[in-house]
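Example 284.
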Amino acid sequence: MKKPIIEVKNYSFAYENTDKKVLDSVSFTINEGDFVGIIGRNKAGKSTLCESLVGLLPFTMGGSWDGEIVIDGKSLNETKGAGVTDIIGIVFQDAESQFTQETVEDEIAFAMCNFGYSRELMRERILYASEACGLRNMLDRSPFKLSGGQQQRLAIACILALQPKVIILDESTSQLDPIGRDEVFGLITKLHAAGSTVIMVDHNIEKIAEYVNKVLVLHDGKVIEFDDAGKVFQKKDKLNAHDVRVPQVTDAALQLKDKLGFKEAPITLEQAKSVFAGYKKEGK
Ligand SMILES: Nc1ncnc2c1ncn2[C@@H]1O[C@H](COP(=O)(O)OP(=O)(O)OP(=O)(O)O)[C@@H](O)[C@H]1O
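Predicted structure in complex with adenosine-5'-triphosphate:
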């Protein structure tokens, strides 16, 4: 049986000086090895949820909360948000603004220095993270002179050097061109295949449908759906009512569902190709 790595139990959160619950009685469990996409309209609370999962909210940045978040068996309420950097790490949208060092190598080393890693361990992890993220031949380059996709891969390498079990990407592909976006999705797919648990916030529904296995839909701070991606995207009417669209291929297939009689609409082009190829062969 899969082991729970993130347990969110009836968690509510309000920013300082407000009593509006930006997250309202949120409960869900993510297991080791899951690849979860978090979707929802603007201001649904997605970033607030991600920052809560790493303990930044409320413990570093303030705010009031209720309920509990447990990361790999550690309650953030008990650790006051600390002690989970080797379990869970977050990559934000604007990688460049977080860089402070003159070279890629120093940037990857930076967090490890702060955590007091030995020189040998740092060297080992720099090689591991730069290799995994395709930056091994760029260690002496300036982080500020990399392309958008390379900068996001560097931001991921900085997190990866700490070898967390869970990586969260909060809209980290939204400012990238299609090539940069594919670079990041390609890297994340590799990390997931190697055993990492991945949580990804992204407005690109097609990419989410293509890559993740579970989808969590947030709306006004509440979890509307949390299930296998294939199941969630069948619920077009419910998602549309919460300002979330389904993949275009699913939308089109749902319109043909009754006529063609398939049980579940495909959510990716690849799936659609095999569903519709079957119909062609059978001459239906
Ligand atoms: N530092 C803050 N102080 C007060 N309110 C905040 C703060 N940050 C976010 N909010 C509010 O919390 C709500 C949820 O914001 P959040 O950024 O978590 O949503 P989101 O789903 O990530 O949105 P988007 O898709 O637009 O990035 C919004 O109403 C936002 O205005």
